[in-house]
Amino acid sequence: MRVTGDGIWGEPDDPRTCLAVLRRTLELGVNFIDTANSYGPAVSERLITEALHPYPRHLVIATKGGLTRPGPNRWVPDCRPEHLRAELDGSLQRLRLQRIDLYQLHCPDPKVPYAESVGEVARLQREGKIRHVGISNVNVEQLAQARSILDVVSVQNRYNLADRGSEPVLRACEQAGIAFIPWGPLARMGAGSQGADPAVTALAAIAKARGIVLSQALLAWLLAKSPVMLPIPGTSKLAHLEANVAAAGIVLDADEMRRIG
Which of 10, 25, 66, 111 is 20 to 30 Å from 44 by CA-CA measure? Predict the structure, then answer.
């Protein structure tokens, strides 16, 4: 998402560094990259292809459809079946793939019955264009509805230390063995965020004691929070990428998790 211009719109200011970040992910052992047709739009998918194609066999590239982009920082749902089909075909072409390993319905569209949108994704899967299906920005009821139509392997909802509104969805995913992919995992973790929230204050103290940065402590907290958790921290900077990947090796103990809450 971050290898695009301001407002997740247009080309990045430093495309050479963005390409280097994408290539470095593989060198660091990353085997899952999350993108979407709407990032740019189309910019993120194109840069992934430019940097990484032909893809190594172990790499899973997940993309999404169901949002249109009228301008910077503007997101408008469009989950009509014909639009989802056109979006998927565009993603396949840009990513130079015959099949998307994980295709995610970006959000419910209030103008289209959810079952109709999910049903079209199921048809595309039966046609061989999609291997696995995920859904995004859903509640527990919508997750259950989608699962009554097809096999859902992942849910991507906003979730971080300061925003745990999707806790019921996370628990439903745990019970069903479905991967939970928190977007915005580092949201509101910038300078000055400590003190406003006791959990953030506790996390900052733990980070300081361990000699790690706050973002690493937060990613470690997410990984310790649930066995189905798969954070996707976005970045266009090599230093941030290195720090984020290193967080996978940080294990918070039970006492630290209690202190954070």
Answer: 111
